[in-house]
Specification:
By secondary structure, the protein is an all-alpha fold. Helices cover 49% and strands 0% of the residues.
């Protein structure tokens, strides 16, 4: 199965999570997200690795936080 990368929104999601003080550990453990903490961290917090979120990861973050994905585009 091919993984779809969401270019351009990873930074916006990271800024949202930081501004709203979202705990990445709790988000990673949320039933809706199912994203391993390490991948979540390197995508939205680690400025050196620059890993973009995959589309399914991005959408699961939006579902877990009850956010509209369009707000990040």
């Amino acid at each position: 199965m091919r993984k779809i990368i969401v270019k351009g929104v990873t930074k916006k999601v990271g800024e949202y999570l930081e501004e709203n003080k979202v705990n990445l550990s709790k988000l990673a453990l949320a039933e809706e997200s199912k994203i391993p903490y390490y991948l979540l961290y390197v995508s939205v917090r680690d400025k050196h690795l620059e890993r973009d979120l995959r589309a399914d990861e991005f959408l699961s973050i939006c579902v877990a936080l009850n956010l509209n994905p369009v707000d990040f585009i």
